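Incident log, structure service

09:12 report received: a user says their structure output differs between two submissions of the same chain.
09:20 pulled the input from the user's history:
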Amino acid sequence: MSVDLQNSYGNVESKIKAANTFLEVSKDRKKILNDQLNNLTKKNDQISSSIDQLKEQKKRFQREVKSQLSQLLDISQFNLGNGSSTMRYIKSKFVQAALNIEPKVAKILLNETVKTLGCSQQQTFPDGLGFYIKVSSVDIQNLLKRDPNDEVAALAYEKNPPSNNQRPYSMNRALWECTQNVNVPIDIFGVSGNKLFEISYVTVAQPGNISGDFFRVVLAGGSINNLNKVVDFLVDYYRSIKVVDLSNIFFQLIDLISGAFSFSLSIGVGELEIKSKFSIILQRILGLCFDSKKEIDVTGNSKVSELDGIDQSFFEFNSIDLRNIESQISNIRNGVMEFEDCENVFLPVDSQSLIDAILSFNRADNINDQQEIAESLTSSITDNPKWKLLFPNSFDLDLKIDLSFLETLPKAIMFALLTPKVILPLVIMSKALGQLISDEIEDFMTFVKSFFKFSLNVMSKIAALFVEELFYIIEKDIKVIARQIVSEIARETASKKLAIILKLVELLLIVAKFVDDWRKCKSVVDEILALLAFIGNPLKLPGPLLAASSLLPGFSSARANINMIEEFQKLGLPTGAMPDGSPNLMLTSLFGSMSAMQKEENENGKVQVFTPPLTMTPGGLTIGNGNSFGKKM
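09:34 re-ran on a clean worker, output below:
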């Protein structure tokens, strides 16, 4: 079990990296032996280091909390492939997950809304209840201030205009239409066909004649004994809409990465600042873990458990945060992207190309076409002719943009989720139950403070869907590594027992079913460490079965070499190919030394064992003290 979580992440990376290097060195050794025998010219072996370079080029000072998803993305890059192809594969899987995520998000949303309202299954509200809701309380990102007939603004709305018989109902568009006419009520129906409420836009709230922008809501009647169940209302409403629209997910994703749509919509400084701060809060939420309290972190760098130590400071921003926000806003308003890893180069964003790409996605009805377009969105950013003139060739831009795509996707889904049609029933029911907390909501920041547990659980559970997806990718890579290394051990010892172990490892590596919550960082990393443990110790016997110790595999030069490589890498010693691409002769020579020691032990090694005298009981039982003594010769 991982006690120090941050150290466990490091151990996983270290072991995977050492295992991969071992396979490379093993290949190099065989190649050198073959070249010596056949007097052939050595070929240069290449080990990709693009990911290592990317990690070294990250900003030195970065206050953002590194999420479990980011940690696992780092781990996933230590596989047998190269960095760019790995990112493309993971991106394909993530896009596929995003295209099918709406039903899962809808389930999360319903459950967390009920929890936030504190409702039991029998909680009710009366017929005909009417009240006023500030428009800003449900429209925290000012969507309703933008005309859905505008080409860019339309990307954050539903695809089709609203119609009473339409399912899913285009509620965001209906609310925009509502705001265009004062005191004109519209009826909202659930998926059951029953009327849920009447809503109208007004500029004066009663009593008090308070001026402003308000929705007047009157809950429908027709229930038994004039009482309606809150849960039934929420289920009927949420099933009548699509809680998160795919085009809006990728609209938000590209905007978070490039700022292209904020630039095109000429969003003001104040709104950009609020959005940037909310993004930081979401990142901090992603840095939280949900492991049980019995698992103890022993370092200040370890992630904190859910709600531990969360107070007002969680929503505060230091001078570094504020400078980063200011810089980000400046870049958006200037229509550029800044790459500090590449000597603070500023590259222009082709907003129209990105708009065209999202419009193409919106027009595509076939999921395969949507998958292809979504995967190519990052290319729409980088395939800018001006970039080729300004951008140095030494930096892998596509890799960086793809990594940002993967890390930002869960946050983009959260942004796409928090639209008026999703927040409206939460605010309506909180009002119906006499809760006035929604009156404080004006924007993203006041929303997350008012409904923090809701935001926390929805955001973390969305991210957990991608953590699960990424875990299976890592598991698949580790299986490949395990099969190759155990095969190497089997060839090394020529043992039929180890050939059987190779089959057993395939069965033992099915461990994902033991993870019950993909937000538990330690549980996930423990399972990865368990996977890796099988590489170095394919047959591990518990104490009661020591009588069968003859089945143990014994010393393996292959495993010893992996341990040696891991220690070298910890010390910063070179374990990759030479600068000219030739094999690392130091490692191959040490490999040969270990093999020679293995040969000596196989041919001449022995163990002498002494067992103390045994006592025979009258009943025929043999009794000993359980101790035996031996010496390896």
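09:41 both user submissions now match this output. Likely a transient worker issue. Closing.
09:42 reviewer note: The first helix runs from residue 5 to 38. The chain has 24 helices and twelve strands.
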